[in-house]
């Protein structure tokens, strides 16, 4: 008898295995979908964060650019008023971008436990205009600077370059810098010709580099171009101030512990770029933007009409008397009585001076009568002697244009310097701003001694920006005597037509900062951006919610207001 056995248990086992396999697949799919979902979420979040960061950066960039246009508006209205833009925290520090007068959210300062913030406060985007303070290197100013506060790279003389390099570049026995190579190479780079100076370089030297290139033999286009010149390494051009904020930060004063490498001597070597410019231009106009009155113009009737609108009758009569006699003015200082001859300090050596009918200066040149020497060799010897021994040229003597004394006084001098000129040129190039230039740049006034430069710096510290808006303060405050003042008048200024503006945009509710630097030229009321640079790559460099000043080695950033 045959029995049929049912295999239900086998079928159940197969079904169970299939069900388990399906369950495993489902679980794997769930895990994969979860990973995909998590990855997608992270990607979306990343994109959202990126978009938010870009939005924040865009907003802060707009705020920083708003600071530039705030500077433009100030220059349009008050370009000649140094107090309006040189250091004005009320107008250029922590300015709300939207014009609202809100406290906003104070960013936490990790170096201080006292900083707190209100999470319910309205966020505020702000900007600050920040510039180095030449009279206090531990702090910054809230304003901007005319480019005449720097030495013109394309017109600086050999003696000016030598004095600047000797004053700025630190020299150590382990790593000394050959100043002769720097000076000669810089002059060779900007001058035509193929014959190098004794310590310079032309095409023959640059062609041996890898990769090779040629000397420019033309004026510099940017200050950064110095990096192409023989001897000008990155350290010499930019120094220890890696973030270029003009402050000695902790990482710039710790030796080799952190980047950048420095000597840890408690002093900030800012590099040569800090002292140079190619935009030291000043328009030949008065503080309110009007062309100055040209004293030697041919149309004397027009000259008299212009003078009568500005000056007292005695000055007008004197000017017209000089012109009617067929004479011309060679300086606006001819309107003031000529000073007595200067006293010669015999300890500095004998130097001849020659009486001039106007303001042309003369210098005595040492020479050996029995030795033949070319003018170029003589100039080089004089420059080397003056640079090494710091010999200042004694002022020449001056004489009046007429037998009678001119009617002008020191009190008239600010108006005379502002409204009158003997130069028909529409602008001046390479003049040095005595009210804003750092000491190393003031050394470019090679007629001055170290003591006279120190006197200028000390005196301007005690004056308000408004009081030093005209070069007349040097004479009115007794900083220089009239002979020396006349000698350097054609080389100095207190104004410019091109301005360096560094604007920092930031917000109270996050730590993103945008830094831009703009070179702006003012042609009357019309601004023109000559140079624009994004400085974000150099780092934040500032903690703008407090007063910017030198940070200590422990990271403190000063008190906050």
Describe the model.
With 561 residues, this protein is of the alpha/beta class. The protein folds into three domains: 62-143 and 501-538, no CATH class; 155-277, Ribonucleotide Reductase Protein R1, domain 1; 289-343 and 355-362 and 373-434 and 461-493, no CATH class. It contains 15 helices and 18 strands. It has helices at 8-78, 82-85, 89-92, 158-168, 179-190, 203-206, 234-238, 300-308, 313-324, 375-389, 413-419, 439-442, 450-461, 473-476, 482-488, and strands at 95-96, 125-129, 131-132, 140-141, 145-146, 151-152, 276-277, 281-283, 293-294, 355-356, 397-398, 420-421, 427-429, 432-433, 492-493, 498-507, 513-523, 526-534. Strands 1, 2, 5, 16, 17 and 18 form a six-stranded antiparallel sheet that branches. The chain has a two-stranded antiparallel ribbon with strand order 3-4. It has a two-stranded parallel ribbon with strand order 6-7. The chain starts with 7 loop residues before the first helix and ends in a 27-residue tail after the last strand.
| Computed CA radius of gyration, to the nearest angstrom | 33 Å
Q: If helices are DSSP runs of H or I spanning 4 or more residues, what is the number of helices?
A: 15
Q: Which class do the helix and strand fractions yield?
A: alpha/beta
When the domains are counted, the total is: 3
Biggest β-sheet: count, sense, barrel? 6 strands, antiparallel
Arithmetic mean of pLDDT = 82
Shape: elongated
Helix content: 25-40%
Total E-strand runs: 18
Low-confidence spans: pLDDT under 50, at least 5 residues?
107-115, 347-373, 552-561
* Amount of beta strand: 5-15%
C-alpha termini separation: 109 Å
